[in-house]
Design a protein that fits this description.
binds magnesium ion, Rossmann fold, single chain, globular, six-stranded mixed sheet
């Protein structure tokens, strides 16, 4: 469970203050697949960075999987992030000089994990995204869609509880975008909680829950009524069917 209550986050420069999040509250239950949409500049990336412990916040509270994150040291935050969170970015963020295998290994290297176990996790993550045969290619030798699938393998190799994705299909054509979404759905069905920021209404509709952020707040925010795993809605029966 990810629980944010009354979070505010202000960016200050010499000239201006930007209230990126204001009185922001949201819960994400285990197993959920939440799509987050909203206008540019509304605070989506800031929300995801705070949720992913990449950034702090000014007021409010944030608890991740039962851990109150406010009082944590930098070390403890990093450990919690490495253990619980996988991140996917619009720009893939692969390391160009490392081959695919070593890219997926990067977050695992921060853990005390035997080489054999790392190798097994990397191989099975690359298998899942369909790129096991490319393990010794460089990122530049892959298409954009394949690079994003490597980034997904990197994000899930450590078996995180939460996968946070910031416009992961923003640089992809619509076919590759759908493939990435297929993969995210599959990962969610295997039990990983996903928060996906996207501009694409077609992808957002495929999530279990849609949340809109406007002016640093969830519009129409309501607390969860229960903390059980939400039930996936049945797919519409036929294209064009209404009601
Ligand atoms: N590092 C930063 N320094 C100053 N202002 C920032 C910074 N990051 C984001 N902002 C501002 O905070 C607001 C929300 O940004 P962001 O979370 O990136 O929005 P979105 O992802 O929805 O486009 C914007 O007005 C943006 O300019
Ligand atoms: Mg953004």
């Amino acid at each position: 469970m990810l629980v944010m209550r009354h979070i505010s986050k202000v960016f200050r420069t010499d000239l201006i203050e930007t209230h990126a999040l204001r009185d922001f509250s949201l819960e994400v239950a285990e197993g959920d697949f939440v799509a987050v949409t909203g206008p540019s500049g509304s605070g989506k990336t800031t929300f995801l960075n705070v949720a992913g412990l990449l950034e702090g916040f000014d007021t409010g509270s944030y608890s991740l999987d039962g851990v109150d994150t406010s009082g944590l040291s930098d070390d403890a935050r990093s450990r919690l992030r490495n253990e619980k969170i996988g991140f996917i970015f619009q720009s893939f963020n692969l390391i160009p000089d490392l081959d695919i295998f070593d890219n997926v290994d990067v977050p695992l290297r921060y853990r005390r994990m035997k080489t054999a176990e790392r190798r097994e996790r990397i191989t099975s993550a690359l298998d899942l995204v369909g790129l096991a045969s490319r393990a010794h290619h460089l990122p530049s030798q892959l298409s954009g869609g394949q690079q994003q699938r490597v980034a997904i393998a990197r994000a899930i190799a450590g078996d995180p509880k939460f996968l946070l994705a910031d416009e992961p299909t923003g640089n992809l054509d619509s076919l590759m975008a759908r493939q990435v979404m297929d993969l995210l759905e599959q990962i969610n069905e295997m039990g990983t909680t996903i928060v996906l920021v996207t501009h694409d209404p077609e992808l957002a509709r495929r999530a279990q829950r849609n949340v809109q952020i406007i002016d640093g707040q969830v519009s129409d925010y309501r607390p969860y009524e229960s903390h059980v795993r939400p039930v996936r809605e049945a797919a519409p029966q036929a294209a064009g069917a209404t009601t």
